[in-house]
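Interim report to the steering committee. The following record documents the input for MucB/RseB C-terminal domain-containing protein (316 residues).
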Amino acid sequence: MKGLNQYLPKIGWGILLSWSVAVTAEAEINTASSDEAALSLFQQMGQALTQLSYNGIFTHEHSGNLDPIRITHQVINDVEANRFKHLTGSANAIVQRSDASLCAREDLSQQTLLPRTDDSLDSHYLLKLVGEDRVADRSVYIVNALPRDEFRYGYRLALDTETAMPLMMATISGNRMLERFQFIDFQPVTNTAEVVDELIEPKRDEVLLLGGCVQTADLAHWRLGWVPSGFQLISAKVTDSAEMLAFSDGMSRFSVFVSRVLGRKTLEGEARRGGTLVYLDKIVIAGEPYQVSIVGEVPKTTAQKVASAVIPLARR
């Protein structure tokens, strides 16, 4: 990723850190073109997130709290696994694992769960390379991703100049930072012999979370009549009592949970933790109430529209 300095503006760092929304009109954001350098960096970041193994410690800053977390991320033979351990509070760890070889790579256009869109990230975010800095004692490029509509948040990222891994990611609403993830130690792993066995077989007291597969959506009983443009179905889980459908636009992500209500009592309301919103609503189908929960990094107006767009599929 050398040679990007030609794209960097020669201005003071204090100005570079100012959030571009404050000085960029909405109409200009909607019509402006993203930097070629920023687009290239985001493509490299996507590869790094799914292909790079690393160890590190990052902080999660949200709602006045600062949580330090140790992470081990390994990608071996299509198996992607993370081990998260909070360094304050409870010492229990969470292991998150997904095995791409177990999921059929089907064409999502064959699914009937959402309106199909093929728009690129640039269609929904104005991507700008705005400067350089250091994070976790490593050189980084600073990139802003400004939303082109009201259905998603903006982001500021610090991308490692060597690996394109995001070493800092802040979620921005208007001029307010909702949360920030930032590495304070980051070590890429190039020797696959250093795989941590606990990621494959977690310890007894650790929580194991398995990723969903897209083809599971074929078993779902629900679909969305509307999603913000650019959001795609990325995984699904179907059980006897509940269903989960997860969507992403390449930056933001939200999940939709639908479950049958026991006792006919539903919950309604909202709660927020940093950039993550939990929005609770209900729908009534053939006189039966169902709980709908939207969880993700989206504004409340987006969650409300998604919740109202949940409709049942015709039973097969």
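The chain has four helices and 18 strands. The committee is asked to note this result when reviewing the revised timeline.
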